[in-house]
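Review form for a predicted model. The reviewer records the input and the model, then writes brief findings.
Reviewer: anonymous (R2)
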Amino acid sequence: MNYQELGEYLRSMGNQVVGNHEKLEGIPLARAAQSLERAVFQFGKKLDDFLGGRGPGIQELDELLKSPQAKAHLPLAGLNIISRKLFGETLKAERLPTGRKEFFARVKKEQVGEETVEVLKDFFFQAAQMVPPPEDKVSLQNELLRLGSLPEEELKFEFSHRLKSLSILKNLAKANSLPISRSPKKSDLIDVITHYARRAHANIAHRAPP
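Model under review:
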């Protein structure tokens, strides 16, 4: 069946449904209608993308980047994690608005809209499942070691998402007896925690048996 035949078939079936909608009933037909609705919706999105010259998945990606999920879970560090996964490198932008534009343009250029949508959805799911920061001293000490083992983009994501609160950073520093002032700035805390986390992890790795 070519696209012209498909269009004519859908028009004919649509006319049947409209003309007989008051008679249609029953669970089997309703289930089939639900399956058809999902399939038609997905096809419609891909058709809009194609006719709009945007490529598969680009419209959905645009919506995801503007969604409440993106606002809650996608700082620039998170976008760099995704960029690294898709393209093997981070973004050149240093601020989130320009980073999103750069990322969106790269996805369109590389024509990986559908793949990006799946990666982004999985990222949102994982970010929403992250456990709250620990509160007791031993757990905070273990947290410092864990942070020291993270790649650079993931560490920045932690500080801009899960550990973005100044009070959490202070608790983490105090539990590990890190040298901080009485009223430290957030950026200073991040620098101190990063330095000692990397050093602590290196010491553990150095002592680990081969």
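Findings: Residues 27-51 form the longest helix (25 residues).
Further findings: The CA atoms of residues 33 and 61 lie 27 Å apart.
Recommendation: see findings above.
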